[in-house]
Amino acid sequence: MTYFCDVAMFVAGALAFLIAGDLEGVLDNGVAFPKNARLEVVSATGAASEGPAWDPEWGILSTGKGSINRHAIDGNHSVLREQAGANGLLFDREGRLLACEPRQRRVTRMLRDGTVEVLTESYDGQPYNQPNDLTVDSKGRIYFSDACYGGPQNIRQRSPDGRSIEGVYRIDAPGKVVRVLGNDDVERANGVLVSADDRFLFVADNCNDRLGGARKLWRFALRDDGTVEPGSRKMLYDWGAGRGPDGIKQDIEGRLYVAGGTNESKPPFEPDNSRPGGVYVIDPAEGTLLAFLPVPTDEVTNCAFGGADGRDLYVTGGGTLYRIRTTTAGRVTWPKSR
What we know:
CATH superfamily: TolB, C-terminal domain
Number of domains: 1
Strand content: 35-45%
Shape: globular
CATH class: Mainly Beta
Radius of gyration: 18 Å
Number of helices: 1
């Protein structure tokens, strides 16, 4: 069974008093979401805390309750990988499922027959913190973030002088890994995305357990070899003192869809709810906010494009999986026909 929520209801109801400043004029404006679009609850079982990833055979996958969960096209729900301990998911260009697995501090690749391969589980002789999210460039190289949530006791990656590192890494082949961003570039890398032309790396920097911590979306220029151009960091959007950005996706026009924000003030570290929970559609060049989709359940963690025409946007928030139609198809790595 599915449930529908009219976007206009959110605007007029519980979220209306939150809309201020640069959010004015971008709600329900028809730019990214049709004006008659309705937010559908696909699953409210708590099995969709993160992920998501679309496959035309398996349907939409999500992570939650410790497992990788399958929400099939026919509406049935099942477990694809029991107790995988995963977070971010992504299909590569061969239809293999990539997963960040913070519980086991590793990044894996699952073949279509269910075989799981470990791509990396340490760097420079140290285990990872908690691999969080990942993206793939046109050459098949995998970039992933290695955040640390839940306290400093979870930090494993440190610089020679003892500073914690919650950076971004690039996997060129199984076991062959390079750190591309460190603690001088980002505070706590979360969502990551490489642009379609491999020119830019977008990073959601969400250090939300420290007053004054970064809640910003950055853009870095990439060289042909997959390294970051020094001095190229540009701030696109700042969530201030609320909850910052999380997962990032992009449509075929290049617009960024960023999950983030919070509907409730959560002192002491997230006292500001002026940027509510939802999907922020942002221009990749100047960081202009183009559209905003409010989502009623905190925390809004990620999104992914799917469906037969690529115009279904799936959103995870508070363990709930939502779906809404978009005006433009998403940019995806799988299936290849896109």
